[in-house]
Amino acid sequence: MADDLMMDFQGDDYFMQQALREARKAYAAKEVPVGAVIVRDGQVIARSWNQVETLRDATAHAEMLSLTSAQSAVGDWRLEGCTLYVTKEPCPMCAGAIVHCRPERVVFGCPDAKAGAAGGWINLLESNPPLNHRCEIVSGVMGDECLALLQSFFREARERKKEERRMRGDMKE
């Protein structure tokens, strides 16, 4: 019974909670709420959130920013022995960068059937023979929480757009 009450500070849920914390920063900044952390030897060595609008940079996805930060932290472009935790399945751009950086694992929350590159739409991380590295994929970790945050963000964004159109007189009452 006591084991049920103990928190696993090394488990996937714990580190996904850290990624969700980053995603909430993106949400607060009106960015698509995706967050990422990179862990090595049980320690978070990098963390980031989507900053595409903030930095006016289409490549400023949470994964890309955290990969760059982790490379600085370890002093090498190879992230062997690392795990990337991200709240949404990586897109093809991020998956390509992930393959080149060589982390052992990628753990994500919610899938992206339309544009996910870790099995949702395509799988660049595990099963693409021409690429030089494969990552173990774990999907669905805290998936409901990750999805709920994204759905809330896009619902609010649609409501804002609707209100803006109404204020401009583009819509009939």
Number of helices: 6
Query: What is the helix content?
Result: 40-55%
Note the beta-strand portion: 15-25%
Shape, per Cα inertia axes: globular
User: What is the radius of gyration computed over CA atoms, rounded to a whole number of angstroms?
Assistant: 17 Å
Total beta-strand segments: 5
The profile of the biggest β sheet is: 5 strands, mixed
Straight-line N-to-C gap: 58 Å
Return residue spans where pLDDT drops below 50 for at least 5 consecutive residues: none
Rounded mean pLDDT score: 92
| Sequence of strands across the biggest β-sheet | 2-1-3-4-5
Give the structural class: alpha/beta
Order of helices and strands: HHEEHHEHEEH
Blueprint of the fold:
Blueprint: H1 2-5, H2 12-28, E1 35-40, E2 43-49, H3 52-55, H4 62-74, E3 82-88, H5 92-101, E4 105-110, E5 136-139, H6 143-168
Descriptive report:
The chain has 173 residues and is of the alpha/beta class. It has six helices and five strands. A hairpin with a 2-residue loop joins β1 and β2. The longest helix has 26 residues. The termini are far apart.
Jot down its keywords.
173 residues, globular, alpha/beta, 43% helix, 6 helices
Give a brief rundown of this model.
About 45% of the residues lie in helices and about 15% in strands.
